[in-house]
Amino acid sequence: MIKRLKRLLLISVFFLPPPPELYAKDLIVTFINVGEGDAAYIETPSKERILVDTGNPAAGFRLADFLKAKGVILLDALFITHPHSDHIGGIFHILPGINVKTLYDNGQPISDASEYEAYRWYKEVRRGSNYRAVNTGDIFQYGDVRIQVLWPNDILSSNWNTNSLVLKIIYNEVVFLLMGDANAETEDALLREGIDLNAGILKVGHHGSADAAGERFIKAVSPLYGIISAAGENLQGYADPIIVKRLQDNNIKILYTYSDGDIVFKTSGKELYILK
């Protein structure tokens, strides 16, 4: 409770656009509505443009249209949390028209077995000279914005979600924690490592499924907002009602891409604006 009150004093939240003159100093993070899957677009105050995940193949056109509307022809970084199709699918829509300075992912091995045929094309993308695998401890500095890789520290699990990249975005007093499809196993490992997980905005792991967002983990993060990126009707049943209730019981405001659309945060590093 003390931690939450302290953060509320530091961060003022507004639901109206800030004055235009403040934009130049803002970090802008948009959780894009790509249906099933994840995609988050980041604009730093120093004008770097960064994308985390690209949604699924069928919704890739949404991502391409979003970036086109933003006038994006160059991404300074593209982070793929793991190579499941609802995270890599849109990459094939955007690569023809957008140059990517550096592609980062977790280095997840992909088998050449026939059942992995759908992932072969992503393996081809990885062969580019701009590709680099990252893991725990890697830090990327974009002006005053820092992106820390919290996980994975090794690719050991056969579960691709367990190996998902976990990224912490820090801009002064405002922190975003992006969990990709990280599950309870990942969360427990982060807790054992004693990593500082505290963040005001949490992109809930694995689309709010039952195998993520454990009680101890949620209390360690203690976010003000929880973002669930999922389709309104999906075969997996995301988000799980138990997880939704858990977030609500911890006084976390939940925003859903399928009902709220693109969710846009603008922050000076102190004030936080949510644009509707």
What does this structure look like?
The strands form three sheets. Strands 1-18-17-2-3-4-6-8-9 form a nine-stranded mixed sheet, with no helix packed on it. Strand 12 and strand 13 form a beta hairpin. It is globular. By secondary structure, the protein is α/β, with parallel strands linked by helices. It contains nine helices and 18 strands.
Q: How far do the termini sit from each other?
A: 28 Å
- Quaternary: single chain
Count of distinct structural domains: 1
List low-pLDDT spans: 1-12
The SSE order reads HEEEEHEEHHEEHEEEEEHEHEHEHEE
Structural class of the secondary elements?
alpha/beta
Secondary structure layout plus pairing:
Layout: H1 2-10, E1 13-14, E2 27-31, E3 40-43, E4 49-52, H2 60-69, E5 74-75, E6 77-79, H3 85-88, H4 91-94, E7 99-100, E8 103-105, H5 120-126, E9 131-133, E10 139-142, E11 145-151, E12 166-171, E13 174-178, H6 184-193, E14 201-203, H7 215-221, E15 225-228, H8 241-249, E16 253-256, H9 257-260, E17 263-267, E18 272-275
Parallel strand pairs: 1-18, 4-6, 5-7, 6-8, 8-9, 13-14, 14-15, 15-16
Antiparallel strand pairs: 2-3, 2-17, 3-4, 10-11, 11-12, 12-13, 17-18
